[in-house]
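re: ur msg from earlier - yeah i can do the flavin-adenine dinucleotide complex, just paste it... oh wait u already did. ok heres what im feeding in:
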Amino acid sequence: MPELKSLPFTRIVATPMALDATIWPAEALAFRAANDEVLLLASSLPTIADPHAIILPDSGFVGVWLSAEALQAIFEQHCEWALPATRPVFVQGAVAGIAAKLWLEAERGLLIVPAAYGHDFAERTGLA
Amino acid sequence: MPVAFEAGDSVLVTLQRAGLHPNHGGCLCAAGDCPHCLATVNGVAYVRTCQTLAQPGMIVESFPTDDYPHLPPNTQRGPTVSARNLHCDVVVIGMGEAGQAAAAAATAAGKSVITLDDKAGQEVVGIYPELMVVARTDTGMLHIHAHDEVVVATGAAEIQPVAPGNHLRGIVTPRAATHLAAKGVALGRVVVVESGGAVNLSTSPALNIVAHRKGQVLQFEGLDTLKAVVIQDDNGLSQRIECDTAVVGLGFTPRDLLVRMAAGLKVRAVGDAAREADLPPCPNAGMVCSCSSVSAADLQRVWDQGFHEMELVKRATLAGTGPCQGVVCVPHMRSFLATRTAAADPSAMPDITRLSKVQAPFTARPVVRQLTLGEVAAGAHHHATPRTGLDAEHRRLGAVMDRIGGWWRPWHYGNPLAEYWAVREAVSIGDVSTLGKMIVSGPDTLAFLERLYPTKVSSIAAGRSRYVLILDERGYVMDDGLICKDSDTRYTLTFTSGGSSHAEMWLRDWAEGWNMDVRILNQTMSLGAINVTGPLATQLLQRAGLTQPYKFMQHGHASIANVPCRVYRLSFTGEVSYELHHPVDQSAKLWRTLMTLGADLGIRPHGLQTLLQLRLEKGHVIVGQDTDFDSTPRRIGMEWALRMDKVDFLGKPAIERTNKTVLDKQLVGFEMSAPATFEGANIMYEGEYVGYVTSSTHSPLLGKVVMLGWLKLVNGALPSEVMIDGRLARRVDVPFYDKEGGRARA
Amino acid sequence: MNEFQEQKINLTWREPKRSYDVVIVGGGGHGLAAAYYLATRHGITNVAVLERNYIGSGNSGRNTTIIRANYGIPESVKFYQRSVDLYQSLEAETDRWIMHKQKGLINIAHNEAGLRTERARAAVNVAFGSKTDFITSAEVKKLCPQIDLSGGGEYPVLGASYHHSGSTARHDRVVWAYAEGAMRRGVDVHQRISVTGMLKEGHKVTGVQTTAGPISAKVVMSAVGGQVTQLADMAGVRLPIRSHPLQAFVTNHYSLSFEPILASPALLFYVSQTARGEMLMGAEIDRQPSYSYGTGHHLLQTTSYRAITLLPFLRDLRILRQWTGVCDMSPDYSPIMGFTGVEGFVITSGWGTWGFKGIPASGEQMAELIATGKIPELIAPFALDRFARDRTMADRGSAGTH
Ligand SMILES: Cc1cc2nc3c(=O)[nH]c(=O)nc-3n(C[C@H](O)[C@H](O)[C@H](O)COP(=O)(O)OP(=O)(O)OC[C@H]3O[C@@H](n4cnc5c(N)ncnc54)[C@H](O)[C@@H]3O)c2cc1C
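and the outut:
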């Protein structure tokens, strides 16, 4: 089984307007975790049009890339909500009783939880 | 006694074929409606044998005759049952004609449909809010989430006869007769009685029907097993017919429990599940509810006692409170009450004038088909307890771990006294990663914090921190923490571990409510934090790379052991202390380097037990341990933390109001001689209870017991000497240790 | 014939009158007990109890029937101990079987904070005449052999408090014993009459408007549950109460072999075995305020899971039914009893998740208040104006959901 690993996010909190207007680097994964918050996986930082934005590296999340089938198996067992049909898509909700974030691409997906819950999450889902 | 079975046989069929009744008697429905085929199967009591497929080696036991089944004796843990979550637009329950039609219609309308049927091994247990259908199967539980609606097409249950002797073996419903005959069960001489319900057994040519009558059964005769039935026909003539099996048709009652317990949800009954219930004749004698052993005479008795409502009759007799959920007894109870109500004189019974003529069945309560706690628990977890980045480190060091303030934390590492002296005399590190940590940024930050906190935030200089009390609107102490100024528009706030889970919502709610232009970032789980404390703390940190000196309550950035840290000089222990906030994935590296660099300084990690002892010597209050819901700053002796001259802050009006009331109690310090008493011990004064101890420890350094506790004012004053644990204790001012605070500032 | 059927109670229903000395709104335990004590202790019998449904249809007929006095503050310990004592003598007094059984209540501690709470509880209980000991895990095992002291390796049992007078009684029978006792002495109890408004002269309450017409009264007492804020509103009284659903469930009937009442504040569940052999379990309230009687799956699921952690044998027991009550929660987890500031209108309320045990003492004390016009000492601390006076009865952690 693949393992949960620390993710090198940059966490950005800014006005929703500024986040809406931001042009993310082409190779970046920018997860809109809230109206005013983005979790960014990228090698470079874009300009954010908010002088008061909080932009900080954040190692507080762990995650794992899984195949669509592996994700499906985890979801069927551990998730009461339905996955959206569109791809790619970013969603959040409880998985195995823990607040999780999920980035779904056509063939695979990235499952993310706070590092503080990584131990319990791995134990519950069999992601050692 | 071993019995043979054929593939596809239910346990009931298997037993019947061997001439056995799964329980002691009673009419069989073979359709999962009634309680009469319940038995203990493989150690699990109350299994519906008609719904359970026979398996090789299965052990079936009847219940004891004079008691309920025994509780499982052992304390062994069985395997956990798994749950599968499925999603669709429409769930159809019951695959009879109506169910098939509903499923076909939904499919034709382009809906995704999941169908469930007990004959296919899916027993539906309940329909719950958010439209979740729960079903049990032999391989685990199904949790099916329906988007649009749930269609209940479960059909109708057959009404069972009530007459003396209806507890005997040999009585079956028409459908059961058909089913058993088709399965080749020998039913012997069969008498058919139509009591308001048509019975057509022509599809079962194997049956030896000796009589087919219309009328009422007056009596089922026999000792354990049916020998004869006495039937009264519609003309009032009665006749006794010998037989082995009686088949009685009384009509139907919809199987609508699932619908009735899902009131307010998008659930719809179709087919027979939506039909009107037939009302059988008023029961005059015989067993009405076999689950709770309630006879027709019992109904009459409680009626005479003044119980005239369906619910009250249920509660007084307990009819309908057993495993069949009232399916068998409710039609008869309704008929009984309708008949008695119609005959009653309203002037003698004024209460019945406000009742309907035919009362509705009593409230349907989940679950419909019973499942075990193990089955219902499928997919559940304990509340997840977060771990810090040092969790593995603590466990490796042999720490006793405890859930504290919602986190796993080290209580001690085996030698709390050594941990204590390491802090007081050398240097020690502690894991404080669990502190709440928030960044607030934006043009309104200062205005926002000024309104939120009772301190004068504008007087905090950049690079400095201040201790604050956090109040709610009612002026009660909710939490405490630090305000650290980063720049004019950016501050870092800390909260206690216990308070941190609420902190973000609290900040956001008020920011939104006051329409403040601020950004809020919760870093609680992103940053680890290590407290380096003790007289040698500065020396250790210099070794680890701290170049610039920090003043008390100053903060800044530094690389410590090559880990980027936010350094806060402060003190909770009473000694020189630095909190190092750092990326949580580097906690272990930082911790280990400090341990190595401090080895010759006598470094040891300290756990929470020691930390609580150290802070108590300093008289620091732990919100939640020393405080209660009604703790105002005045009551905990911390009015110095308020700036009442500020225009406004959260809780200020409430404090102005409560300050005018007479002070009734205060949190104060006490000393006495060893040994320490427990936290929670009573405080007595002149034989009267005047409060209790909230924190207590024996101070190794001071050689006496120091405590905090709530003390009532007696005749307007705080007693200065009290009894704790039967011993004399003196009220003293806090802190107990280093009153001037020179050590922390050194 | 099952021995638990009601055999003795006789309920006498009469025509409603247009005027009474006292009208009590709400035919739950609290309303009926007050009527009973007005009649038996003060000879006041020109009293009506108005119930919109049937008697005991509210939480008095839905609770998990736990009676205890192991609270965390002196005022509560004293009050509930009075109730515990009244319960103990209620069968003898009314000559009715309420199935009262002393079982002992174990409150388990799974961590240091829990140990602190249970030690403190025992200390304040003893100080105010209620018998509670702090006990070791080995003693827990003796009292409850079925327990897994390791808590499935997750929630180890570190110790507990043991409340000797923890007991249960059949909820319906308590309701009926009070109803019958009151009816026998001339009190009218009317079912299926809802109070829809207040009759007033200025600010003074002079009676109630009902679905069966107006009824005047010298004193109106609210003993309603569920929607008490609306009723109080009609009288011009604002109550600091929020209503939250609370659920419970029972298993089928099993041979009697589980002695005590066992509660785990950390795992948020408690369990006992009823006289009829059902394992009866309760849990926490729904965090979301609501008047909904709907029953959820999540609670059943997590409570079952938690219960199995401590009592693995529960795994194979079958669940019979689950149900919900709507609980009136006060901000400090203590009840509200007494005058309201509106003449002619008194109240007993805020019984939250803990009010079954309070029925006798609340009834007795409220009857005294109505009869004498003075606030009895035992309930003075629970007056409504305590919130404005900064004298809340804060009882952190000991209210529990039972
Ligand atoms: C699941 C559950 C478990 C519980 N477990 C325990 C326990 O173990 N121990 C314990 O001590 N407590 C427990 N409780 C709490 C306890 O049940 C209640 O606090 C107690 O029953 C309250 O009694 P009451 O008479 O005040 O209210 P109720 O019994 O609710 O009576 C109020 C009555 O007022 C009537 N009414 C409302 N509005 C009107 C109106 N406008 N006109 C006329 N009538 C009206 C209602 O129909 C109702 O019958 C539990 C509660 C629940 C829901």
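cool cool. The CA atoms of residues 74 and 125 of chain A lie 7 Å apart. ping me if u need the other ligands too
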